[in-house]
Amino acid sequence: MPLKVGDRLPNAELYENTPGNKVNIHDVISGKKVVLFGVPGAFTPGCSKTHLAGYVKEADNLKDHGIGELVCISVNDAFVMGAWAKDTQAEGKVRLLSDPLANFTKSIELTTEIPVLGGTRSMRYSMLLDDGEIKALNVEPDGTGLSCSLAQHMKDKLKK
């Protein structure tokens, strides 16, 4: 059953920068407000130039609205995500976590099949979490578009 507002985010093991650096998602989200968003693929045009770039640009503003952490998850290997963080100047602003086998993405039922990107990928989404509880969930209607999951949309929700 897909996630909805009021649900708690399931636990998962992800990776940051290298396969040796395991990250427990509950450790990342516990006790704070977190914006977590998923993208179909690192280094892809929409993900790099619009989706991630918007969160990098708005990181300080979102944190000024009480967000303790910004987290991007993609079905890519940890080395790719680490290189993408450096390339997009996301380091220190947005944590880029790798879900190499899509285990986390499958557990939240937000997978999509994109053969030209390697098969199973993440839909494009964003969510606002408060101590692991989903307070807002924005899933792109077609799974890959660039509208409701963007940083500006999340920023507008936080202003209300």
TrEMBL record:
Pfam families assigned to the protein according to its UniProt record, in alphabetical order: Redoxin (PF08534)
Q: Which GO terms describe its molecular function?
A: thioredoxin peroxidase activity
Indicate yes or no for the key word Cell division.
Answer: no
Q: Which reaction does it catalyse?
A: a hydroperoxide + [thioredoxin]-dithiol = an alcohol + [thioredoxin]-disulfide + H2O
- An example Gene Ontology biological process: cell redox homeostasis
Keyword Oxidoreductase set for record: yes
Enzyme Commission number: 1.11.1.24
Which keywords accompany this UniProt record? Antioxidant, Oxidoreductase, Peroxidase, Redox-active center
Top-level lineage group: Eukaryota
- Report the residue ranges that make up the Thioredoxin domain in this protein: 3-160
Cite the InterPro entries for this sequence.
PRX5-like (IPR037944), Redoxin (IPR013740), Thioredoxin-like_sf (IPR036249), Thioredoxin_domain (IPR013766)
What's an example GO cellular component term for this entry? peroxisome
What positions constitute the catalytic site? C47 (cysteine sulfenic acid (-soh) intermediate)
Q: According to its UniProt entry, what is the function of this protein?
A: Thiol-specific peroxidase that catalyzes the reduction of hydrogen peroxide and organic hydroperoxides to water and alcohols, respectively. Plays a role in cell protection against oxidative stress by detoxifying peroxides and as sensor of hydrogen peroxide-mediated signaling events.
Tell me the protein family, please.
Belongs to the peroxiredoxin family. Prx5 subfamily.
> Which PANTHER family does this entry report, sorted A to Z?
PEROXIREDOXIN, PEROXIREDOXIN-5, MITOCHONDRIAL
Name of the protein: Peroxiredoxin-5
Species: Parthenolecanium corni
